[in-house]
Amino acid sequence: MGKHSSTALTLHTGAPQGCVPSPLSLPAHLSPLPVCGQAPLNTKIVGGEDAPPGSWPWQASLKQNGSHICGGSLINSIWVVTAAHCIGSESPHDWEVFVGLQTQEGSNPNGQGSVVSRVIVHPLYDSQTHDNDIALMQLSATVTFTDYVQPVCLAASNSTIYNGTEIWVTGWGDISSQGQFSLPSPGILQEVQIPIVGNRICSCLYGTANINITNNMLCAGLLQGGKDSCQGDSGGPLVTQLGSAWVLAGVVSFGIGCAEPDFPGVYTRVSNYQNWIISTITPNNTGFVTFTSSGKDDSNSTCPEIGLSSSSMTRASNFLLLSLLLSLAPSLLHPCLKL
Question: CA-CA to 283 of 20 to 30 Å: which in 63, 151, 304, 329?
Answer without folding.
Answer: 63
